[in-house]
Design goal:
This protein has one domain: Rossmann fold (3-Layer(aba) Sandwich), CATH 3.40.50. It is globular and about 55 Å long. It starts with a helix and ends with a helix. The protein contains six helices and nine strands; from the N terminus they run H-E-E-E-E-H-E-E-H-E-H-E-H-E-H. Helix content is 31%, strand content 24%. It is α/β, with parallel strands linked by helices. A five-stranded mixed β-barrel has the order 5-8-7-6-9. Helix 3 packs across helix 6.
Length: 271
């Protein structure tokens, strides 16, 4: 990745009409319906944006959408990139850097995750308070990283305190039950074994997924305030583990999604 590549990507998007978005939003697996709320939308497919990776997962549609949501200019990633697709950390986080160059001042992230905490249920929403990176690498571990920001990034508070507090207050006001916890990110694409679920619980994870953390690390590198929520799509009880059903995970995400959309829209109004 070079500055010139990033400049070309951003120039293409600006020419398409992506004009000074205030908020960037990353939509996770089964969580693409927020785009239907965007007014005066402009789309840019990933395969048309210079130097963007291509989305390969069938339920990630692969485009950036720009428009107005609750009176604010937003740019939304409908479909993200994952290490399990064969991408590297720079590919996975490239769109975050592009959105920052476009002008975003806040970043919202969503994902679908499995519930490790047995007090949590599928269909719950969890605000990510902290995370554990189990993906075996970093999106900042490249030679010319200093051209993009400081090499050593503090991660003592990776999620923006003010936005997290506002989201908790909004959930309470809207009558939406929202858990809070620690998200662990693994590479995938295989799901975890019983022993791995036990390990995740021991090390303090409340939920597990295959995304988000590289994006959050880069947001912190760019001094970009970030808030993230998980839609819990399955319960990972090692003593009562059922074979995974991807269709059911997508279905649960779809049913819970309206609550997540409400939370995000109300937060956009307030910030």
């Amino acid at each position: 990745m070079t500055k010139k590549q990033l400049e070309e990507s951003v120039a293409y998007l600006k020419n398409k009409g992506f004009d000074q978005p205030e908020i960037g939003i990353v939509l996770g697996t089964g969580l693409g319906q927020l785009v239907n709320e965007i007014q005066n939308s402009i789309e840019a497919h990933y395969n048309h944006i210079p130097f963007f990776p291509l989305a390969t997962v069938e339920f990630h549609s692969g485009k950036l959408i720009y428009g107005t949501l609750e009176g604010k200019k937003v740019v939304v990633m409908q479909g993200r990139f994952h290490l399990y697709e064969g991408y590297d950390f720079l590919d996975v986080t490239y769109p975050i850097r592009a959105m920052r160059e476009l002008g975003i001042q806040k970043l919202f992230i969503s994902n679908a995750a499995g519930a490790i905490n047995l007090d949590f249920r599928k269909g719950d929403i969890m605000l990510i308070e902290d995370h554990i990176n189990l993906q075996g690498g970093s999106p900042l571990a490249f030679r010319n990283v200093a051209q993009f920001g400081e090499r050593f990034v503090d991660m003592s508070a990776p999620y923006d305190k003010e936005m997290c507090e506002r989201l908790v207050a909004i959930a309470r006001r809207e009558g939406i039950s929202m858990k809070q916890g620690v998200y662990a990110s693994v590479i995938g694409p295989q799901l975890e074994t019983k022993a791995e679920y036990r390990m995740l619980k021991i090390i303090g994870a409340d939920a597990v997924g295959m995304s988000t953390i590289p994006e959050v690390i880069v947001a912190n590198h760019l001094r970009l305030p970030v808030v993230a929520v998980s839609v819990l799509t399955d319960e990972c009880d090692p003593d009562n583990l059922q074979p995974v059903n991807i269709e059911e995970i997508i279905e649960v995400a779809g049913k819970t999604e309206p609550k997540m959309i409400r939370l995000f829209k109300e937060l956009i109004k307030e910030i």
